Structure formats: structure tokens, C-alpha cells
Amino acid sequence: MNRKLAYIYLRILKKPTKGLDTINYITSEDISHYLNKYTNIQVIDIAKLHKDRLIEKISFKLKVNKFIAKIIVNMLYYTREYFFIKAKVINMVIIKENK
Fold first, then answer.
1. For residue 6, is it within any domain?
2. How many domains does the chain have?
3. Is 3 contained in some domain?
4. At 13, phi and psi to the nearest 5?
């Protein structure tokens, strides 16, 4: 939700809007981008890993092309993400390798 829409929504609910300017939105792609510049850090995005495995599973079980399986998974994923879940959770594993 962008800040202007959040501001209007909170005003309708008669809630304070004071902290909206201090919110920093971040995605798992941002975290991966920031940490991938270090050579001794490995970043594993669990959500992406699960999504890729689901694509493989659907492709195998339904005997369809991976492209079609990816479309099916994306439709299911985004429907669940945008209609039923209020906030997206970032699930990542970050491993620092000793050198």
C-alpha cells in the first residue's frame, strides 16, 4: 500500500498517521541485491525455493510444460498473496562463509 493511500485509510479509521513517513519498505530482492555484493555471504530465498519446487511438482504431476506450470503457480501464489494475506513475509537464510 502506498503512503498516500495508507494515510487516507488511517484517516478514515481515525487512527494516527504520524509514523507513515518513517516506514521503509523492503523486499527479499532488495536484501539479496544488497548482500550479493559480498563474496563470503550466501543468500537463500526460501519463498523462491518453495515456488520453484512447486513448479517442478506441478509440471511432473500434471505432465505439463514448465512454462504452463509456472503460470499456474503464479496465479495461485498471487491470488493468495494479494487477497488473503495482509503482509508478505520475507523468508531467507543468510550464510556467512568463513575464509
1. no
2. 1
3. no
4. -80, 0
